[in-house]
Design goal:
Blueprint lengths: L10 E12 L2 E12 L15 H8 L6 E6 L4 H8 L18 H9 L10
Antiparallel strand pairs: 1-2, 1-3
Length: 120
């Protein structure tokens, strides 16, 4: 895997030539983009367009066999646990019990953080 030289401290996310295939299916074919700190960024496209794979690769939930990525200066392949506190991600499926109310969900997910804040 390639690495990205650390040249711009203003970048929150750096992705270069990210590729991912599942067998014969090419889910992501050479995606490159930067997201600056404080910038709002969105990947748009229809179902199956390859939006989820880059997001999960940048968080360390999926491997990326080709390309390079860095989030807050950290390589997700080796520093995924370092990204869990400062970066939030909502996966497509998280297996949350459907009978929990919003307060209970916020309380539950708050427990994952070292500096948990009160739900109120």
């Amino acid at each position: 895997m390639n690495s990205i030289p650390n040249t711009d401290a203003d970048l929150a996310i750096e992705v270069r030539d990210l590729r991912k295939s599942y067998g014969e299916t090419h889910a992501v074919g050479g995606v490159t983009f930067d997201v600056r700190r404080g910038e709002v960024f969105c990947l748009l496209g229809p179902n199956g367009a390859g939006k989820t794979t880059p997001g999960e690769s940048m968080q360390g939930y999926r491997t990326r066999p080709a390309g390079a990525a860095r989030v807050l200066g950290i390589g997700p392949a080796t520093g995924a646990s370092e990204l869990r506190e400062p970066v939030g991600i909502v996966l497509q499926q998280c297996g949350v019990q459907p009978d929990l109310i919003v307060y209970e969900l916020v309380e539950m997910f708050g427990r994952y953080h070292v500096r948990q804040r009160p739900v109120d």
